[in-house]
Amino acid sequence: MTITVLDSHSAMRRILRAPAADRTALLRAMLAPTEGMYRFFPGDVDLVAVHQQSSGFPLDRDEERCLDALDALAAADAWGRMQRALDHAADVLRAAVPGLAVPDITVLAVLGDPGDAHFMGPSLGMTGFGGISGHIVITLWPFPENLARLEATAAHELNHNLRYSPGGVVWDPATVTVGEQVVSEGLADAFARQLHGDELGYARLGVASLHDDAAFAKVVTGLDVTGMRNFTAWVHGDAGAERLGVAPVGLPTGAGYAAGNRLVDAYLAVTGQTAAQALHADSAAVIATALDRAA
Length: 295
Prior knowledge:
By secondary structure, the chain is an alpha/beta fold. It has two domains: 168 residues, no CATH class; 124 residues, no CATH class.
């Protein structure tokens, strides 16, 4: 098992300093190691288009602003810190889950788009995608709060990756429930908190809703909704849903993360497990245990 944090710092610096006509090809080369992440997508995937749709740094503006942001990430030792955090987190999970198979994992840290109002605003300059075995992509802007959470963010995404790796939970995009996604976010946050504490371990997206009882109750009504297309509204909230053209359901940003933390914390309290030990916990069992405890 090898976890490889790619040297995207050097690659992004080359892209941002290159003539505009050369940037697309350079970006495509940087993104090539992530191609396997899209192996379940129908047809060919344009990695540059995915980058642009996912709030990745722009190729036609804000060069100096982005270069300054890269300097901030480098000064914070972002790549080294994520590598060390991922290696440690993998060791903790292997110790907690007997027989856990950890695949080779490629990790790409990408600078976000400072001109993307949703990314810089509701998303707080941070998104992560770790649910496809063997690949993690973290898109970020170096706000101080995000720099402080680099290790916790890496641990969160690794938890997703190993939950859905072979031998773990099977993810079927057509039949998977909102409950599975909500629980997975809660488990990933609980694991990050186990390693890095509550102050840094919570994903920033859900912190504001942690004690919002009305939002929690609303999320609970949607836990049986199926199909990935519905997840943004229930997990990320109305602002994220509207950005993707999905019907909002009346939830604040990150409500699903907050609900997932509450459900998972209740489950762990009842079972006595650590978050690491609960890596492959059945989401239906987590939900039933937590709601029964709250009744």
